[in-house]
Amino acid sequence: MKPLPTSATLSLRIQPGAKREGVVGAYGDALKIAIAAPAVDGKANEALIRLLASLLGIVRARIEIVSGQTSRSKVVRIEGLSTQEVLRALTTVE
User: Fold this and answer.
1) Nearest-CA neighbor of 15 among 57, 59, 94, 71?
2) Low-confidence residues in the chain, pLDDT < 50
3) Residue 25 and residue 20: Cα distance in Å, rounded?
4) What is the pLDDT at residue 92?
5) pLDDT at 5
6) Which strands sit side by side in the sheet containing 73-79, from one edge to the other?
7) What is the pLDDT of residue 45?
8) Residue 50 belongs to some domain of the structure
9) CB 33 within 8 A of CB 51
10) What CATH number should be reported for the domain holding residue 19?
11) What's the confidence (pLDDT) of residue 61?
12) What is the largest CA-CA distance in the chain?
């Protein structure tokens, strides 16, 4: 098994309890993402990882919340994709 060659680290601003899930746009130097799940018992974190995996076409195990477990501001690491690939995929989603 070969190690994944690259990883991307992103700053995100999460909006839990939203009516529609998806990428909202820029929020300062972060990317704002709306999540339908409430910010209770880690449900928003799970929903964030599930949404990112779906949008990027990767398995959830390749996504890790590095910081901000209990905050709306999070830093997320995505293994196997470059930052440019991740941003391209997330900013072209409609």
Assistant:
1) 71
2) none
3) 14
4) 79
5) 66
6) 22-27, 30-34, 7-15, 73-79, 63-67
7) 96
8) yes
9) yes
10) 3.30.1200.10
11) 96
12) 41
